[in-house]
Every structure is written in structure tokens, then in C-alpha cells.
Design goal:
The chain is built from 5 helices and 2 strands; from the N terminus they run H-H-H-H-E-E-H. The chain has 94 residues and is mainly alpha-helical. The longest helix is centred in the middle third of the chain and has 14 residues.
């Protein structure tokens, strides 16, 4: 395609400058990566048995379970090849 054809298909877009997100009182929100890092450090300090116990106790939220599964996939319990919490949530339990 020629340059005019590309420009017709994909016109230039304008960049919108936005201020950083803040809380209701005006304080800046933490960068998401900064908020996650302490959890990853704690996760790495736990033994595999401790991580499994914390999961079984229900102390991990959904995002933390996902981070655990991505970082230590061999530790995560599965049912028929599916991650346990997903399998249990999608199972047809009569």
C-alpha cells in the first residue's frame, strides 16, 4: 500500500495528556508494580509448603493466586489439568 492509502486507513491520532491518577483527597496512587512487589517478595520468602497452606487457608486473593500460579506453576494444585480454583468455580456441582 502506498503512504496515502495507509494514512487513509490509519489517520493520525492525537495524544491526550492526563495527570497521574489520585485518590479522592488528591494523594497520588501508587504505581501498580510498586504495590505488587512486596507481595512477590513475601511469596519468594515462603517455602512451597507455606505457599500451599496460605492458599488452602484462603488468604490469597484472586490476583495473588494468579501471581503464585505464574511464578510457581509446579506448586499449584490442579484438577484434570485445570488450576484447582478455576476448576472448582466452573464445576457443575449438583
Amino acid at each position: 500500500m502506498s503512504s496515502p492509502a495507509l494514512q487513509a486507513l490509519f489517520p493520525e491520532t492525537k495524544t491526550v495528556e492526563r495527570p497521574p491518577a489520585s485518590t479522592a483527597d488528591g494523594a497520588p496512587l501508587l504505581d501498580r508494580a510498586q504495590a505488587v512487589e512486596p507481595f512477590v517478595v513475601r511469596l519468594d520468602r515462603m517455602s512451597p509448603r507455606q505457599r500451599l497452606q496460605v492458599y488452602r487457608d484462603g488468604a490469597f486473593n484472586r490476583e495473588e493466586r494468579t501471581r503464585w500460579a505464574c511464578r510457581y506453576p509446579e506448586e499449584v494444585p490442579t484438577i484434570n489439568g485445570e488450576v484447582e480454583w478455576i476448576a472448582l468455580a466452573s464445576a457443575d456441582l449438583d
